[in-house]
Each structure stands twice: as C-alpha cells, then as structure tokens.
Write a structure and sequence with these properties.
- There is one protein chain.
- This protein is mostly helical.
- The chain has three domains: 12-133, no CATH class; 143-265, no CATH class; 278-472, Orthogonal Bundle (Fic-like fold), CATH 1.10.3290.10.
- It has 19 helices and four strands.
- The strands form two sheets. The protein has a two-stranded antiparallel sheet with strand order 1-2.
- A hairpin with a 4-residue loop joins β3 and β4.
- α5 runs antiparallel to α6 (149-171) and α14 packs across α17.
- Mean pLDDT is 80; it is low at 1-6 and 243-273.
- Residues 340-466 form the Fido domain.
- This is Fido domain-containing protein.
Length: 473
C-alpha cells in the first residue's frame, strides 16, 4: 500500500463548526467497529513497531504504519464526512468504570495486532464524536448570549472557562490540548456570530502564553483567560469586589473568588501586557547581521569518532529514541545532498514527535512561559522557505549559514512543538552536507541566543567556526 504525501487529507485545524457540528452529521455509534473493519485499507494492518537496539527504527516499516493511518483517515472521512479526521486528535474517552483513557496515540505506538488496532481506531473515533457532542451541548447551553454588557460578560466568562476546562480534562493536557482549546474557542466565537475576522487575535490575546503543552492549567489560569476574553468581547472590566461563587467545577477557585485574599482580587488589566514579537526582532537582526564577515570560509571533511549533537540528543529525558531516529534521516539526506527545504524539516519532525504530519503553525506561538511571542502572518511559510534556501548558499561561510539556520528555526518557530530539536537537526544537516560533524555541541545547544542582538548572532557564527576548528584539530 502506498499513500502519496500530497493526497488530500483534511486537517483538524481547518475544520469549521459546520464541519463538526454533531447535530448536522447523523452518526450510529453502534456500527462504528463494523464500518472500520469494512473500510480498513487493503492489505491488512501493518506490523507493529519493533525497536532493535543498535539498528533503530525500520524506516520503510514505519512509513507503512503512517501511510496506513492516513489511508484509514481518508476512508473514514469518505464514509462519515470531514469531521471524522479528528479520530487522531488524541482525545481521551471513558471506559465502562469511568476511567479516562487514550485509545490512539499515533500509528507508531498504537498499531498492534490487527483486531486490536481496528478496535482502537473505532474507539478513538467514538471518543472524538463524544467530545464534539459535548461541545455542541455546551454551546447550546450558553446560547443565545445576553445583550446587556454586564450579563454578556458573565456569560462569556462562564462559557470560555467551561470550554478550556472541558478540553483540558478530555485531552489529559497532553501536547494536543492547547491547539484543540484554541480551536474550540474559535468555533464558539463563530457560532455566537462574533463579527469580524479577528477571532485568532481575540483567542491569542486571551490564552496566548498562559498555557503549555503537557501541563494541566490551574483553575486561576483558566479564570484569568476566561475573564480576559470576556472583557475583550464586551468591553466590561469587573470591579475588584465582584466575587465569583466560592466553588468551581473540580473545586477550582476564580481569581475573583471570596476564597482568595483581597490582594489576589485586586483590579487587573483586562488585556494582558503586549509581549514583543520575537520573530519580528529576529528578522530585523537577520537582515542587519554581517554574515559574510562573521566567520571565515571552512570546508570539510572535519569529524572525529564523536558526534556531539547525537550525544546531546541521546541525553534527553524524554523522546531521545525518536530524536536519534530523526537524526538518521538527517544523515541520509545530508549524504544525498540538495537544498534544505521545509518538506525535509517536516519529515524529520514527524519522526521527532511521532506524528503523521507536522505542518507549519497557523497561529501565533509562545515560549519561555509566555515571555516570547512568535506572531503569525500569512506570508511566514514563504518567508521561512526563502530563509531555508539560503542555508546552502556557498557565498556565505559555512559557520554563518549553520548558525543562521539554527536561529531561523528557533525564532520562526514553525512547528507546534519540538522547535529546539528541529533547529539542532537543521544545523546538523547544513554542516554534515559539507562533511562537518561537530565533536562537541552541548555548549551551543544549551545556550540561549537572544533574538534582538546582531552581534550575538554574529557571535554564534564565530562560535560554530571555533567548534569546527576544534573538531578538525
């Protein structure tokens, strides 16, 4: 079975509420397993993952597993409609005894024996459908919203808090919960007929920089985000003595609860402080830096028996095996030659994150506990492609090109997660393509390089040159 990479595959973040509204799309939950068996890709379920120490992942077998997942998604979408593509969204469901479990976490980890795999697919689709039905019920409960500003503020605050809590609870606060939270809020803005095309900006202002993947949100954080969104939509700022009821669902207190000291309920700005755009600062620095003079021209080969970047990736507490598997792909691509492209970066990143696709982000991104913001604009993917193309320009010294592409990936922040690892792999590719493999890389990869200092960017290029010279000696 071969699935072409450009086959049309619906993406969850492109779905509208009309696409997923359970009231518009009839569904028989009792027949799901029979449907999955009937539409399963021809050729049977691929073999499950078998990791062999010293040999790593079998690339062809792994591609077959992801191709099978893509083919299953296409089949389910054809049978049920585009909403069904969310079966891979890693939305947890309840067992008969009430426990929350995740039935599908990607082709690599979830493909087991054939019948167990098909049952897992059916279970994941059912869990996704139940989540959509829960959202539809929540939307119906809160609509229509009152017109009076004060009442509208209270309604918006309660709705936003309920949405965030629902998504966080159902997703287990894993790496996918934050994008799903963003999407659910935008769906509600559309259903509530909030005018204008600035829904992304509204949601970014409310929750951007407040939450993190793999971290469950605190009740106070949920309340703060909900209040911020309600204030932005209604223009109402609650007074300091406007107390929320003393208990929330799951016993979460609000920042305005009477349970909290008065100091904690002091008036706060309805809009969070504006965080400077780190990506915009980097793009200015990138243009100003003297890359041609920051380091001298060097050429390979330059390597020893030691691979510094591989050693650094191997020491990761989580995901070391996936990062090293991606590094194998980078080595193969470097030996093949050719330019650095986003398609190559995405292939490596799919390996790093164990996901079927790793598209360029479509919203603003945040890092360092909300202290850095990477704004999104429609022209960013094309601008990033142009930057990647410059990574193999022989007119610029190799150390400068390697340093520049490392910072490009960090500050363009193209992926939803794992951008630091992606930056390290891009740097590795640019150097290895010309026969250079650093024997020591931890000092480079563990240092924070500021986005707004041209001299710092040039200093990184000089540091890469020094590491190359050390390797050569």
């Amino acid at each position: 079975m071969t699935i072409e990479r450009d086959d049309p595959l619906p993406r969850i973040d492109n779905l509208t509420w009309a696409d997923v509204d359970s009231f518009r799309h009839p569904f028989d939950p009792d027949s799901v397993l029979d449907v999955v068996r009937a539409v399963a890709p021809a050729g049977g379920v691929p073999a499950p993952l078998q990791y062999e120490p010293g040999r790593g992942f079998g690339r062809a077998a792994d591609e077959a597993r992801w191709d099978w997942q893509r083919a299953m998604t296409l089949a389910l979408v054809e049978r049920y409609g585009s909403w069904a593509c969310g079966w891979t969204a890693q939305m947890g469901g309840r067992t008969a005894d009430g426990a929350l479990i995740l039935r599908w976490s990607g082709a690599r980890d979830s493909i087991t024996m054939p019948e167990e795999t098909l049952a897992a697919v059916a279970g994941a689709l059912l869990d996704w459908r139940v989540f959509l039905e829960d959202l539809a019920e929540l939307f119906a409960r809160h609509l229509p919203l009152p017109a009076e500003p004060r009442a509208a503020f209270v309604a918006w605050e309660a709705t936003a808090a309920g949405l965030v809590a629902t998504v966080a609870a159902r997703s287990g606060a894993d790496e996918h919960w934050f994008p799903m939270c963003t999407l659910a809020l935008k769906w509600f803005l559309a259903v509530a007929e909030v005018p204008g095309d600035g829904h992304d900006a509204l949601v970014d202002a409310a929750i951007g920089g407040r939450f993190w993947s793999y971290v469950s949100p605190l009740g106070a954080e949920v309340g703060d985000a909900a209040e911020s969104l309600a204030a932005a939509l209604t223009g109402v700022t609650p007074p300091a003595d406007d107390a929320w009821p003393d208990t929330w669902p799951q016993d979460w207190p609000s920042l305005r609860s009477t349970e909290l000291p008065a100091a904690a309920r002091a008036p706060r700005r309805a809009e969070p402080p504006v965080v400077p755009d780190t990506l915009a600062a980097w793009r200015q620095v990138r243009r100003a830096a003297r890359w041609e003079h920051a380091a001298g021209h060097v050429s390979g080969p330059a390597r020893t028996a030691r691979d510094g970047i591989a050693e650094h990736l191997a020491k990761r507490k989580y995901g070391a095996g996936r990062a090293l598997a991606a590094l194998q792909l980078v080595r193969a691509d470097a030996a093949e030659g050719g330019p650095l492209t986003f398609a190559r970066l995405e292939t490596w990143q799919r390996e790093v994150l164990a996901v079927a696709t790793a598209p360029f982000r479509t919203t603003s991104a945040w890092a360092r506990a909300g202290r850095e913001r990477y704004a999104y604009h429609d022209e960013l993917p094309a601008a990033f492609d142009a930057c990647l193309a410059e990574a193999t320009d022989p007119a610029v010294p190799l150390p400068s090109r390697a340093a520049r592409v490392y910072l490009d990936v960090l500050f363009f922040h193209p992926f939803a997660d794992g951008n630091g690892r992606s930056a390290a792999l891009a740097l590795y590719f640019v150097l290895a393509r010309e026969g250079v493999v650093l024997d020591r890389a931890a000092p480079l990869l563990m240092t924070r390089w500021p986005a707004s200092d041209p001299r710092g960017a040039e200093g990184l290029a000089g540091f890469v040159a020094a590491l190359v010279e050390r390797t050569r000696r």
